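Residues pack. Consider this:
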Amino acid sequence: SQWSVSSAPDATLSAELVLMTRALTTPDLDRDARVLLALVPALRRRDRRPGVRAELSGLVTKLRRSVSEAALAHSDEDLSVGADAAAALAVTAFGRDDLGVPRELLRRLERRVVHIGESVWIPAEPGREVRVMCLVAMTAARLGRTDLAFRLLGTLLRLSNPLPETAWGDAPRGVGLSE
């Protein structure tokens, strides 16, 4: 998309948004949540492009409705899709009234959280753990649950900075994950 390119005419952006709205005829929770997340930068800058604000708001509203309905009916088995939906709805909410569904989705995701000392884990599908934890942290922060958000981010930080090994091949005791 050319949203952030100031030289892109509003007519071009408007046409892209209309095409996207038409293409998203069949609800698909995974796709719709990811598209909604991808639209966040444009939504944050919507006042810079008043000529396309209506089309963007219409598309976001359509996607929020689709994601909300599908996410509430979705099983909790696929944590990745649930995390995408919760984050997409939380960060695109137009006000406090729009936070009910992401709050419920966060509640469901929290049931799967594992606490080990200071670390907080979400046992997602292999290869998706970091993404899920980041999305849940983003949702938690948006909903005012900074305690959960910071614990998730702290766990990710500790994972990204492995402890150095000692001369004996193990990490020092009393620091980070080796406690």
